[in-house]
């Protein structure tokens, strides 16, 4: 896969991941078994919604120029991996949370894998015509 192809797919993944982040609140309302961790009222889910909505906006903006936003993209990849791993452990150790293994846990790992495969390893290596001239 060429760099141009990777960047084209990366733009699509960034927009889709951004839209998924923005869709978190509706998903929590209409699909609580897979997207809500608390029963009853809790302020915690709205804090997570706020953080992910902000991330979603910035991922969509990053799709314009992925090479200029590598740190955000790598943060998203690694934080999704960590978040997914923690949630996977919590899902199998807490009764009644198994629905998350079919919903938000795989979503986090899909984002992780897609970004890990598509993200260039360095800005210098990714930009055609640039060389490390020390």
Q: How many extended strands?
A: 0
Q: Which spans of ≥5 residues are poorly predicted at pLDDT below 50? A: none
Helix amount? 55-70%
Rg, Cα atoms, Å: 17 Å
Tell me the number of structural domains: 1
Q: Determine the number of helices (DSSP H or I, runs of at least 4 residues).
A: 7
Largest sheet: none
Instruction: Give the N-to-C terminal Cα separation.
Output: 29 Å
The share of residues in extended strands comes to under 5%
Please tell me what the overall shape is: elongated
Give the assembly state of these chains.
Answer: single chain
State the order of secondary-structure elements, H for helix, E for strand.
HHHHHHH
- Mean pLDDT over the full residue set: 84
Q: Which structural category do the helix and sheet elements fall into? A: mainly alpha
Keywords: Membrane, Transmembrane, Transmembrane helix
Pfam family, one: DUF6632
InterPro entries: DUF6632
Transmembrane segments: 12-32, 44-63, 70-93, 105-124
